[in-house]
Amino acid sequence: MSELPSEPAGVPKIHPLNREMLPEDPLEMQAFEVPGDTELMFRIVIEEFARMGWDKAAIVGLARDPFYAALHGLWRLYGEEAFGDRVAQVLSRVGVTRVRSFVAPSPSELMQIEAS
Fold it and tell me: Is the distance from CB of 63 to CB of 77 less than 8 angstroms?
């Protein structure tokens, strides 16, 4: 059996609440490109929006907004028409989740149900 190291390797983990605030840290989320499978990322992102109830028109509209960096980057990569076609393909396979909720009216009187 091997012994555990006396000191942890790598950078020490510090919780953000306990970390020193540095002037060059913008405290904002930063987006940047990483290598990977573009097709897989596209399907995963579109499926996520579909599960939130977004249809093709809503997803394509959102992709036009540069604020949504990953989705907008895919829209720019494929172009308007191809992006819409790809969204339609994914949605035809997974569907769009639709949920409707309501508050039931309170009963005017309670009724005792007897078990037989």
Answer: no
